[in-house]
Structures are given as structure tokens and as C-alpha cells.
Amino acid sequence: MNSLYQLWILGALDNTGDLTPLGRRMSDFPLDPPLSKLLLFAHEHGGCSTEMLIIVSMLSVPSVFFRPKDREEESDAAREKFFVAESDHLTLLNVYLRAKQYKFDSQWCARHFIHSKGIRKAREVHAQLLDLMKQQKLEPRSCGDSWDAVRRSICSAYFYNSSKIKGIGEYVNMLTGIPSALHPSSALFGLGYTPDYVCYHELISTSKEYMSCVTAVEGEWLAELGPMFFSIKESFETTLKRRQQKKDEEASMEKEMAVKEYREKKEKREKERRAALERSEGRGGGEIATPGRHANSTPRFMPKKRGRLGL
Questions:
Q1: Residue 113: what are its φ and ψ, rounded to 5°?
Q2: What is the C-alpha to C-alpha distance for residues 262 and 269, in angstroms, rounded to an integer?
Q3: Which residues are paired to 249 by β-bridges?
Q4: pLDDT band at residue 248 using 50, 70 and 90 as cut-offs
Q5: Which ranges of 10-146 would DSSP assign to H, the alpha helix?
Q6: Cα(295)–Cα(286) distance, rounded to whole angstroms?
Q7: Percent of the chain having pLDDT more than 70?
Q8: What is the CA radius of gyration of the chain?
Q9: pLDDT reported for residue 236
């Protein structure tokens, strides 16, 4: 996806390509744009920035799980203890909270097949992000056990990485049509049911496309948070109104671009005029002053005095 296009759909750029207030706030975080949007949306609309800080920190480091070749079943069983059925993101949150409960002990991490260095690195990232939020006067808020607020916040930043169910464990990307599947290590893999819509962090290409770090979302959230791509099926009259609204939005975008181009041309002409004026004043400063002559005027005509003719 084109970088500028991604910033536009996230709300960081306006229709003329300039930074929005949200985009300026996103730039204060040393994160990928979707993760910055994730934090700000969770704070302002989800009320779950405390949980989202941990999730973003865990996504900013390599996978904290390891799977030894001779102990695959044992490591898989240890990982399943942390699973949250609806979301791999919530699974990462659960892992961090349990590790924090045991003070990030190396022996506890080894027993549960977790990289102790990776989880400690996530703790350092979390501390840095927390300081940045406090510098922006954003006090973290917790949603308690309301995981829907966390899943909705994830949908707000990754709605363009959304897939719809096609078969058992198989999905298709809703924008590109690329077939994708749940990774066997996902918390959603092997459940008694598969959600209709999911958002994922990224795709992993091996023998086929696997979705990495998947969260189940609602179709209504996609229509609400990604209206430029998705909409709920409506009646014929509502469809006509939506089409008209889309035409009005396109006309508004074109008008904004025209206004911006006009302003840029006007500023350019004003700069050229000032530069020309400065050049002319610079040339006029070297003229020789003539007595009896006013500045920027022609010399006055002084008639000669004639004497009287004597008899």
C-alpha cells in the first residue's frame, strides 16, 4: 500500500496532502503510523490506552514465544494456557500481565517457553511510550475486562487489513481478494467456531499467505471505522443517498485542492512581486542627487529674471 495513501485512510493527512491535527500527534510517537493511531484512538474513544500500551509494546519486539524442535507439543501446550479465544493481541496482553505478575523472572519465562530478553525489551518499550504519553498530557485509562473496546480500537487502525471468512480456517482479504489463512499458532486456530471478520497485523508468506496476530472484529465496526471501503447493505433509496453523498465528498475534495492551488499561486506571485520591487529599489539607490530636485520627480523650471531697460 502506498505510504501517503495509508496515512490518508488513517486520518493523518487531509484531502490536500497536509498533516491533520491527528497526524501531528501521531508523529510524536516513534512507531509505525497504524500503531500510533491505535494508541490515540484507544485513549480518546476506547478508554483502554493502558491495555493498548502493552499490546503496542509487544508488537514492537520480535515474537516472545519460542518452540524447540524436540519439545514442540510441550511448548504448544504452554502457549495455549495464555490464549484469549477472540484475539492474538489480547493473548499478548495476557502474556505480559502474567510475566509482570512474576516480575519477569527468567526461570518462569523458560518454563513457559517465553524469551525473557524479549519480554524485558517489551517492558522497556512500554516505559518509553508511557513517558511520551505523559509528555502529551495523556493519562492512561483502563477498560477493565471490556475486551470489546480493545478489539474495536484494533479495528480502527487495521481495518484495511481485514479478511472475510471463505471456508473453515480460510479467509479472503476484503480489499485485495488475496486468499489468507489463520496461522496454526494463532489463538483463533482450531476453535469450535471461526469469526466472520478478522483484522490482522501483517501477512506471512510461506507455502501460502498466513495472517499474523489476528483479532476477531464485527462487520459494523468495519463500516463505521473504514467508511471509505466498507458499508452496510441498505435499501435502494439509502444507496442513492450514499452515492450522492460520495459525489458531494469528491466535489468537496476537488474544491479544496483548487483553493490550495490558488493560494500557492497567489503566494508565488506575491513573492515574485516583492523580489522585483527589492531589485528595483536596489538599482535606484545608486542615483546621483541633484540640487533643487525632488526625489522621484523632474527638475523644476526656474525662469530667468530679466532686468529693467533704462532710458
A1: 55, 50
A2: 11
A3: none
A4: confident
A5: 21-26, 33-41, 49-59, 72-80, 88-101, 106-111, 116-135
A6: 13
A7: 87
A8: 33
A9: 57
Quote the DSSP letter at residue 65: B
* Beta strand pairing call for 179-182 and 209-217: parallel
Please tell me the distance from the alpha carbon of residue 253 to that of residue 230, in angstroms, as a whole number: 20
Give me the residue spans of the domains in the chain. 3-225, 233-271
CB 170 within 8 Å of CB 179: yes
Helix axes 147-158, 49-59, angle to 10 degrees: 50
**Alpha carbon of 261 to those of 15, 19, 20, 257, 266: distances in Å?**
13, 16, 18, 6, 9
Helix (H, G, I), strand (E, B) or coil at 152: helix
pTM score: 0.73
Alpha carbon of residue 216 to chain centroid: 20
The rounded distance, in Å, linking the Cα atoms of 40 and 181 is 30
Whether residue 212 has pLDDT greater than 50? yes
**CATH number, domain 3-225, options 1.10.150.120, 1.10.10.10, 3.40.50.150, 1.20.120.1080:** 1.20.120.1080
Cell representation of residue 173: 482479504
CA separation for the pair 266, 105 (Å, rounded): 64
Rounded to whole angstroms, the Cα distance separating 213 from 151 reads 12
Supply the DSSP symbol for 213: E
Judged against a pLDDT cut of 70, whether residue 235 lies above it is answered with no
Cα separation, 98 vs 104, in Å, equals 9
DSSP class of 210: E
Average pLDDT over residues 238-265: 82
On whether the CB atoms of residues 90 and 84 are closer than 8 A, the answer is yes
**pLDDT tens sequence across 89-143:** 999 999 999 999 999 999 999 999 999 999 999 999 999 999 999 888 888 888 8
Collapsing DSSP to helix, strand or coil, 43 comes out as: helix
